[in-house]
Amino acid sequence: MLAEQISIFIENKEGRLAEVTAILRDANVNIRALSLADTTDFGVLRLIVNDNEKAEQALRKEGFTVGRTKVLAVEVSDEPGGLNKVLDPLWMQNVNVEYMYAFANPQCKNAIMVFRFDDHDKALEILEKHQIKVITTEDISRL
Amino acid sequence: MPIFDIDFETMPREGLEAIQLRRLQTTIARVYATVPFYRQQFDNAGITPKDIQSLKDLQHVPFTIKQDLRDNYPYGMFAVPMEQVVRIHASSGTTGQPTVVGYTRRDVDTWASLMARSLAAAGAGAGDIIHNAFGYGLFTGGLGAHYGAERLGASVIPVSGGNTKRQITIMKDFKPTILCGTPSYILHLAEVADDMGVDFKDLFFKSGIFGAEPWTENMRQELESKLHLKAVDIYGLSEIIGPGVSIECKEEQKGLHVFEDHFIVEIIDPETGEVLPYGESGELVFTSLTKEAFPVIRYRTRDISSLNPTPCACGRTFVRMTKPAGRTDDMLIIRGVNVFPSQIESVLMENQTIRPHYQLEVDRKGNLDTLTVKVEINEKVFSDDIKSLQTMENKIAYDIKEMLGVTAKVRLVEPKTIQRSQGKAVRVIDKRNF
Questions:
Q1: What is the pTM of this model?
Q2: CATH classification number, A72-135, choose in 3.40.50.2300, 2.130.10.10, 3.30.2130.10, 3.40.50.150
Q3: Helix or strand or coil: residue A72?
Q4: CA of B417: which chain A residue's CA is closest?
Q5: Where is the ACT domain (chain A) (predicted)?
Q6: Of B379, B390, B413, which has the smallest distance from its Cβ to A39's Cβ?
């Protein structure tokens, strides 16, 4: 049920982000969602793409440090309080969000959020119990 | 393990000292007669060659420093006429004008046998194939190792530095068993091999002889595990003879055996110039006993080490010097604290985070020195979580503070952004203008 995110270490230098996206463009990889976390010197770019294998290979070949992380992509209803429906049952059982970002999804009227929780197994269990839809990697590459 | 020159390398102390004294007296008499610089030095100190009655008397002789060699550039320190000089080398000139050194035919011969001793101590023998990645040219590493390998009767591949991908192909196809080079270049080579999908496990090396720059015990572990060989340290400098002044043995890897039948080694306090007893750390000083073209008397190397006189389990009786901890001239003084790049390297390797590609940047902001330690990230330690990367930076900075008492900013940088060198690594960029 878990989706996979690739993460890339980038130094804070002019044009570095554009280089990463150009490498992905040239490898014909489509970016579905992204977030950039940064400090003054470096950043970690987190990406959900349609082809992890291809993206990772292309970036590695250009000398980037690439990691893979399991994340949860969750459907969130597009209405006031939608996000709380997901978060409330989790925090009540002490599952913590490490980071999250939103997903571009033209085909679905619900929003999709990508989460990294401190305890994925427990999060997944809770989400299932509350009938909250989790999107798989296959779904993502089909989007 | 066979010892190449067993009569000398296992000689009892008294016999050795008798040879040393005889050779020292001859050398001193010769430089006094032929090199105006030394005559001047002796005259200024109020001594003559006849005053050298025992090895202890050497302590009254003034030191020779790098600047003296520079002042006599290029041939002023030569003790023979040019017709007898068959080879010229020069130091790398890392810290300024290079110094020029010469060799007679007999000097080249002596050097070859010292390098043959060294290669044998590292486990090489007549059947071995030596991949010599030390640079050929004015730098003494390449030709020194080359002649030694031939003297030993081994096969030598004179590949020199550079052309890294081709070197890896050669390693696969020619099946060399002994690897020689500077540790920083060899690690670069290992990275390139990795990129090419070549695993050193599948190559044929049993030993690696690494030198020309100080490297740490932690670096040894890294080299040994990455390259699947025994890594031994070799020491030398062109002013003395080149590589082959001392070497570790493969069996013990505990200190470098100084070939004392050709050089007298002393450790001095770099501040006072006083000779320090065995075991104490200070600056290495060498006096040549057999060099014809370019003898040096009490040459201050700027390298920091200490001496251990205990005979080694390998059978060699020569005194052992510890791996040089750094050089007095790459010692950085940061806010009054002495810092050697090798100390920072130890901290980095102890954190097991970082491949040994790092660079120290020193700057002065206002009146305050700042030290930035740039270290390359790698996939083993990379995390998508900014917090853990920052924790890692802080942990390294904390350990540096703990160990050296210096506040450093640790900065993670992308892989392969710190420049790789073909020879000696550039570890320090000092932007302060003194």
A1: 0.75
A2: 3.30.2130.10
A3: strand
A4: A63
A5: 5-79
A6: B390
